[in-house]
Write a structure and sequence with these properties.
The chain is mainly beta and 61 residues long. The chain has one domain. It has no helices and five strands. Strand 3 and strand 4 form a beta hairpin.
Length: 61
């Protein structure tokens, strides 16, 4: 299974009005085929997010 996102790609968390982030790393779990991504949102700030938590477009409510 190929990754839905690429390293260096700009993404947003699905929470409304989230700041953009850049994908630094990705890992796939062989047990269920899901992906997790290390997303940087600022200098020294990064988070691991599941693929279902990310979007290429900003969520606005």
């Amino acid at each position: 299974m190929t990754s839905p996102y690429n390293i260096g790609q700009k993404v947003f968390h699905i929470t409304p009005s989230s700041d953009p982030g850049i994908i630094l790393e990705g890992r796939q779990y062989l047990s269920d085929g899901t992906w997790q991504y290390l997303v940087a949102t600022g200098y020294g700030t990064s988070y691991w997010c599941g693929e279902e938590e990310l979007s290429e477009e900003k969520t606005i409510i």
